[in-house]
Each structure stands twice: as C-alpha cells, then as structure tokens.
Amino acid sequence: MSNSFDRQQASFLSSMSAAASKLGSGAGTKRSLAPPSPSPSVGSTTSAPAPGSLTPRREREAPGNVVYSQPALTGTGDSIISQMAYAVSWLRTKDEPQTCADVLGYLSATSRPEKEQEFFVEQMRRHPQIQWIPDPSLSEQTWRSGTYVHRPIIPNVKSKTQLLAYLQKKTDASGVSVKDLKDGWPDCEAAINELEAEHKLLVVRAKKDGAARMVWLDDPSLFHEVDPQLKLLWSRVELPSVENIVQKLLAAQQKPASEDPRLKAAQAPKAEKKKKKTQRRTGKSTNVHMEHLLKDYSHMKR
User: Fold this and answer.
1) Per-residue pLDDT band at 290 (split at 50, 70, 90)
2) CA 212 to chain centre
3) Where is the region Disordered (predicted)?
4) What number does CATH give the domain 160-222?
C-alpha cells in the first residue's frame, strides 16, 4: 500500500518539476500576449459622455415621453383625401364663393408642382359636396378658372322661413334630420327651439342631452291650451292595477286585451302522441304467375 502511494507521489513531483522548468525557460523570452477580450457589460455598451456634458450621448439623443403605440403628430394630413376633407370644411364656413387659389392657399399647397395642383382641382370639381361655378367671361374654362362653394345636403335652408317652406314642399310624412340641416346651417338649433315654442315644429330629442334629432312640420292651429286645474285633477285620478283590471274583466266574462293567445297556447299541456305500431303480415306472399311451376306432382310417379 505504501509503495503505490510513494510511486504516485514521485510521479506528481516529477510532473510539477517539468512544468516549473517549462515556465522558467519561457520567462527569459519576451513574448507579448494579447489580453483576452472581456465579455460585454453594461458599462462597455454605453458610450462615454462628452467633455461638456454630464449624460451619455445615447441618453441625450433618446426622445423622452414617446408613446410608440400611437401615430406621430405630424399636423394636417398630406394625402388628397385629408386635404379634400379640409377643403370641404373650410368652404362650409364661407358664405362667398372662393377661387382655387384661395383653397390651395388655405391648404398650403401653392408650392407644390402644377400637375398636383391641377389634379387636386379636378377632383374638387367632382366632389359631391363642392359646387364649381364656371367663369362666365371665358369661352373655354381652365383648371384655374371659376369659383367654388359648399354644396349642403339640404340646399337653400338657412333661416326659419326657408325651413318651413322646405317642410311644406315635402310630399311624404318623413322627418328631416337635424344633422343634415347643420351641414348647410350650423347654428340652426336656436331657430328650431323658437319654432318648437311657436308650435310650428314637432321635434324629437335625444334622451341623454336633449339635443334635437328629427323635426316635422306642425300646425299651430291644432294646439289648444289645457287648463292647469284640469291637468291637476287628471293626474290625481288613480288607475287600478293591471291585475285588478284582468280579474274584473274575467269576472264579467270578458277577454282582457293583455291576454296573448300565443302565450295561452304555449302554457297549455301538450298531449303526448302515441306511436303507431306497424303490423306484421302473417300471410305468405307467393308469385301468382308462377303457381303452375311450383305445383307438387310427386303423386303422379309410377
């Protein structure tokens, strides 16, 4: 046991001495070894701050309070659809006709190429909410000629008299949307309230804010003031409950109007339908036209 341990100890010492000799021989020669590349750390990824600043450059360049899930605020839209919507909204606020130069100037589009301006003017003439008025002094119209006005959904209705005249000309009993009225008459609510107080308009309002939604023509001659004392007496009359009314009608052998025959039929018990059993045939079925072939002739044998 001791001999094996001695041999292991001797081999270990010899290996250690060999390694020491190698290290000693290599120490005499000058050899430049490149240091190992360090692993990237948080400090190495950030650039050093500038001499005159206290924060790193990357932190100074990063914008603050940016919500990347929302589109950037770039001002007015640059597409032709957005520009056309702005043009319609601007013409709606103008009572006088406007030239194409006025419209392009409002849109800040006068510095664009002439082809783009011409294309926009052509599309503006085709828009259903814009009316182009040609220049009567020119025999041939150009894309710069003429003026433009807003074409409302309900034209020529901008006063109480015009509204009543428009409703009188209607051939059906349909109402007029207040939203359509505001397209050409933005401040029509005050006039609607006045006509309603004069019993010249029937107005349907929203339950949430009481804003007018639809209007109909009314006749003030059909309105009759009811005495307030009569209103008070009418409100004091107590009505019987629905259950008592039904019981009294049934006691008088009368059918109440609240009774639904469909519900009565649904509540009635349904009779169970018995399935009919199919009867089995007991008789033998034979082929009549083959009876002579199936006849027994065994008794005729000799």
Assistant:
1) confident
2) 24
3) 16-73, 253-302
4) 1.10.10.10
Write out the E strands in 37-126: 98-99
Cβ 112 vs Cβ 80: under 8 Å: no
Per-residue pLDDT of 22-50, as tens digits, reads: 545 444 444 444 444 454 544 444 445 44
Helix (H, G, I), strand (E, B) or coil at 32: coil
User: Nearest 5°: phi and psi at 19?
Assistant: -70, -35
Confidence band for 20, pLDDT divided at 50, 70 and 90: low
Is 98:147 a contact under the CB 8 Å cutoff?
Answer: yes
Rounded to a whole number of angstroms, the distance between the first and last alpha carbons of the chain is 122
Q: Where are the alpha helices (DSSP H) in 200-241?
A: 228-236
For the stretch 260-274, pLDDT in tens is 666 666 777 777 777
Which of 199-222 are b and which e, b meaning 16 or more Cβ less than 10 Å from the residue's Cβ?
ebbebeeeeeeeebeebebbeeee
